[in-house]
Amino acid sequence: PNGTLWLGSLEGYLLYVPKNENHAIALPSRELAGSSIEKILPVNNDSLLIGTSKKGMLAYNTRRNTFSQPLLHNRNGSPEIFVRDILQYNPGEFWAATEDGLFCYTSSNVRQIRKIYGDLYSLSDNALYSISRDREGGLWISSYFGGINYLPNRPLQFEKYYPGPRHPSFTGNVIREITKDQYGQFWIGTEDAGLNKADFKK
Question: What predicted TM-score, i.e. pTM, was given to this entire model?
């Protein structure tokens, strides 16, 4: 926001580089202590959403230098959730890819979506890495063990893509990142098979 570069550390430090400066300033906080910062999403000119490894997702007001309480809680009521990625879908609507499934957050409601064993249209895995949105409003979600999940705009029924003969250029199982280029091709960063390129619409 406002030309400021925001950074997060593995030790839980939130840092910023002011506009036209070349050095980072650390903001130690008890709210982030003991948790690595995995994702920083600017929301507006004075607000960030921060995804962490042990404190879930928090909002930070850059003007007041204040943190919210944890915004996500799992089925047991605990905010100790490993948040890998955060996406703003609409104003006030955010989706988070976590180690405990997929969360949809608004100021009035939080929904947790997990794998349902035996349900062919549920998430393929609860350990999620990244989330991105396509031009049709669908969500692409990469997972650790369950390939790629696609949630069309909507109902809540996931399509799944796995390595195999149907998509021979898609060979990885452990998916870290996914993005779509201008030609409709998907570029997939994996931990076990390098960089894959695939066309899932064929």
Answer: 0.81
